[in-house]
Specification:
This protein is an all-alpha fold. It is about 75% helix and about 0% strand. The longest helix has about 60 residues.
Length: about 650
């Protein structure tokens, strides 16, 4: 067995040893050889033609009464019937009920122990395409029946018979060819073996022809007698010029033969072996990938995962990456199998994507980013549509953001925005992008572009019947405050006070809508409180079902109103309305409109935090002094929002 096969086998055995935390037994023996010859080989018990017939029947059968698993077992069981141990093991498993639907996690550990303790079901270390396909077919059928523990068992059994090597030697190996039912592949393998043998023979022939020329030239220089093939040993003679000429002609003929053999070998390599190499690599990766899915199902069925929901972001996932931090502290076989599948076929895009997502869920951001970029290259090579690539662009951008690589993230956010097929999702995400460019990169122009896109969609949303919940509707108003304020920053940078003032007024108007909603809810709550007290007074005099029902309904209305008030207060606290008022007061002051400037500062006293209130008091005092003596004084504070002058 070749080194590649042994290497991959060692990796897989090491993987399952780590997963199951089991130790191999000291008395294990390699029963690869059967010197007595008492056991039949798989192809002797199960002819390849019968396997082909079985697969055709399973593919074309429309008879629902026939059980595919029974059909496969009828073909597979005669091979195991010649072994004693498998029968005993099957009986113990059936009577002891080791493998059941309710012990899926223990089933997996026991299967791993079995895999380490016994090489195959017949305790014979061998590669067999026939047995691999039969066990794999059983695994697929159990998977269709949602019996994951049995599908996992058969997948592991199939894996024991799998030869992961795909070298030229394994391609033409007799042990493999005698178990194949595809006559075309058998013929191609034999042709390639002949081509390779002819090439090796031509190389040897050329070397011999060159050696003969050197020998003849050396003998001629030394004037030494040589025995030629055409002469008896007694008729040795000296080398002539004609002998050297004929030998050089033989070299030329051997070189021509080598070129023809090399050309034939190259054609055979490209047409016969290389397609097998690519197909075998993909099949090996798919095999391990499918096993990884079974293992993942087992992980998910037997572990409570921490469900993290990003409620701080409008788009659900947002720009921030949230992950299950308990994932990489428990059963980790899924990620390890994905890495093995990736090593078997680095160009299998589905495995690369699954591995990237698993690493991201485990919090391994840098490594996950590497695999997302690998998948991006493969997907672009496969000519995937922009709609299919949108998810990948967003994942790459979010990982760059988590790693604080904002410039790189910006490129992929823009690609995501252009490729997102869902207009509604795209519109909501426009606000996230505007906020990202404004706050993370300071790119006010790009921030304005995405803010305006979102505001345009917001206007359409207002014009149509919206199915937003109450918290979402209030969040939209808060987002308007941020969007208009973000746009105003660009006009301030461009020294355009009228446009900046216009955007600041819109931001404050949105903020005032939140304040108005809070006021309405407070009035509603106050009125409901009075009505509830009135109902309570009535209940002191008489108690009946109608009054009690009215009391319960009014209590529910009060609770709902209180929840709404809490929601609005939260949105107000997270809105930069007072900052917009501060900046607008400065603009009014430069217009010599001290009355409006003073009014803005008085509004800040009602809604601002303690720092903002203190600044507003200082500005009100400063404006009063300006009105008294006419001397200009700079506004407070000298910060990016309210301290600069034009």
């Amino acid at each position: 067995m070749k080194q590649t096969r042994l290497g991959l086998g060692a990796v897989l055995l090491t993987l399952f040893w780590l997963v199951g935390n089991v130790q191999t037994q000291a008395d294990e023996q390699d029963q690869r050889l059967d010197p007595a010859g008492i056991y039949k080989l798989p192809h002797e018990v199960i002819p390849p033609a019968s396997l082909r017939t079985l697969k055709e029947n399973l593919l074309n059968s429309s008879d629902t009464a026939s059980d595919p698993i029974t059909s496969i077992r009828q073909v597979l069981d005669p091979y195991y019937a010649q072994f004693v141990d498998p029968k005993r093991t099957e009986e113990e498993r059936r009577l002891g009920r080791i493998f059941t639907e309710k012990t899926d996690r223990n089933s997996l550990r026991l299967l791993i122990l079995k895999m380490l303790g016994k090489i195959t079901g017949g305790q014979q270390l061998r590669d067999s395409p026939i047995l691999f396909e039969l066990h794999w077919l059983l695994s697929q059928e159990y998977s269709k029946k949602k019996q994951n523990f049995k599908a996992l068992e058969e997948a592991l059994a199939a894996l024991r018979y799998r030869d992961f090597s795909h070298t030229e030697e394994s391609f033409s190996k007799e042990e493999r060819l005698r178990e194949l039912y595809d006559t075309n592949e058998v013929e191609r393998a034999k042709q390639h073996a002949i081509s390779k043998k002819e090439l090796e023979k031509a190389n040897i022939g050329l070397e011999k022809a060159k050696d003969r020329v050197h020998l003849l030239e050396a003998a001629s220089a030394r004037e030494k007698d040589l025995i030629f093939e055409s002469n008896p040993p007694s008729n040795a003679r000296k080398v002539s010029a004609n002998d050297i000429t004929l030998a050089k002609q033989d070299v030329k003929n051997a070189d021509d033969t080598l070129k023809r053999a090399a050309s034939a070998y190259k054609d055979s390599f490209e047409n016969n072996y290389y397609p097998f190499f690519k197909r075998k690599s993909r099949e090996d990766a798919e095999t391990v990938f499918t096993l990884a899915k079974f293992v993942k199902d087992s992980e998910n069925e037997n572990k409570e995962r921490l469900k993290v929901v990003n409620k701080t972001s409008v788009s659900g996932a947002g720009i921030f990456v949230l992950f299950d931090y308990k994932r990489n502290t428990d059963f980790f076989a899924y990620a390890a199998l994905l890495e093995l599948a990736f090593r078997l076929d680095p160009e299998y895009s589905q495995v690369v994507l699954a591995l990237a997502e698993e690493l991201k869920a485990s919090g391994k951001k840098a490594k996950s980013l590497d695999f997302f970029l690998k998948y991006l290259a493969l997907a672009l090579r496969e000519n995937k549509t922009p709609a299919e690539m949108a998810y990948v662009y967003r994942a790459i951008a979010s990982l760059h953001t988590e790693l604080k690589q904002y410039v790189l993230a910006a490129e992929f956010y823009e690609k995501y925005y252009l490729s997102e097929p869902d207009p509604k999702k795209k519109g909501i995400y426009a606000f996230e992008l505007g906020n990202f460019f404004e706050s993370k990169l300071g790119n006010l122009e790009s921030g304005r572009k995405y803010y305006e896109d979102w505001l345009q969609i917001r206007e359409q949303e207002k014009a149509t019947a919206s199915d937003l919940s109450y918290p979402e509707s209030q969040e939209r108003i808060r987002m308007e405050v941020l969007a208009y304020l973000g746009i105003s920053k660009l006009y301030r940078y461009e020294k355009k006070p009228p446009k900046e003032k216009e955007e600041l007024i819109k931001s404050i108007q949105a903020y005032d809508r939140l304040r108005e909603n809070l006021k309405l809810e407070e009035e509603k709550y106050s009125q409901g409180k009075k009505e509830l007290l009135q109902i309570k007074k009535g209940l002191l005099e008489r108690t009946n079902d109608q009054d009690m029902a009215q009391y319960r309904l009014k209590s529910l209305e009060m609770e709902e109103s209180k929840e709404k008030m809490d929601i609005i207060r939260t949105k107000l606290d997270a809105s930069p309305g007072p900052r917009a008022m501060q900046r607008l007061s400065v603009l009014y002051e430069f217009e010599k409109n001290y009355g409006e400037s003073k009014r803005m500062n008085e509004e800040i006293l009602k809604v601002g935090n303690q720092t903002e209130i203190n600044l507003a008091l200082k500005n009100i005092e400063r404006i009063n002094k300006i009105l008294e003596d006419g001397m200009q004084r700079d506004p407070y504070p000298r910060d990016p929002l309210s301290g600069d002058t034009y």
